[in-house]
Write a structure and sequence with these properties.
By secondary structure, the chain is an alpha/beta fold. The chain is built from nine helices and five strands. Helix 3 runs parallel beside helix 5.
């Protein structure tokens, strides 16, 4: 049986329990041996960097969150690459690094509806498997996916790769908002990530 590695990309700004549960659901549902957490340097679909914490802080928080789980690993491949962070470039590079392993790109149902606009999307879809994790408020159906313009036969194939998953309504934007408003983020992030945000005065005044 081929070894399968999950690839979970994002800004992780900051990493929270929703990311961890999403990775665990993907690992169990798609038979993965491990999940790589890949923080983006400059995400192309989130042009505003006003609320984006420096990469060194986002990676430090990821290291804290992943420290005691050998199934999960930080992969900084996009941080060392100049320009925008495109998933197709990352998967091409990881295919070379992880020769012999199958790659499963983990994506939330919210991002799936934007997939048609991603760079070289047909190439990306052909380079790896996709594993879709449901997100609250973003139900999926075939007609909605077809209306995005995603070429056939991908709408059918992607809907056949939707995990059961846990519907966790936690987002990085909500966490940043709570920090800016002086509200608690306890239980939404790892306790040491909470401490790190406080110690480094991250997200204060950033909504």
């Amino acid at each position: 049986m081929q070894n399968k590695i999950g690839v979970l990309g994002g800004t992780f700004n900051p990493v929270h329990i929703g990311h961890m549960i999403m990775a665990q659901d993907a690992l169990e549902e798609f038979g993965l041996s491990q999940v790589l957490f890949v923080p983006a340097a400059q995400p192309p679909h989130k042009p505003s960097t006003a609320t984006l914490a420096p990469a060194r802080h986002r990676t430090a928080m990821l290291e804290i969150a992943l420290e005691h789980d050998l199934r999960f690993e930080l992969c900084d491949i996009e941080l060392g690459r100049p320009g925008l962070s495109y998933s197709v470039d990352t998967i091409k590079a990881l295919r070379q690094q992880c020769s012999g392993a199958g790659l499963v790109f983990i994506i939330g149902s919210d991002s799936l509806l934007e997939l048609h606009a991603w760079k070289d999307i047909t190439d990306l879809l052909a380079l790896c498997e996709f594993g879709v994790i449901p997100r609250p408020g973003f139900p999926l159906d075939l007609e909605s996916l077809r209306r995005t313009g995603l070429p056939e036969p991908w709408p059918d194939r992607l809907l056949g790769r939707v995990a059961r998953g846990h519907h966790v309504a936690v987002s990085s934007s909500d966490i940043r908002h709570r920090v800016a408003e002086g509200l608690s983020i306890r239980y939404l992030v790892h306790s040491r990530v909470d401490m790190y945000i406080t110690e480094h005065a991250l997200y204060r005044g950033r909504l």
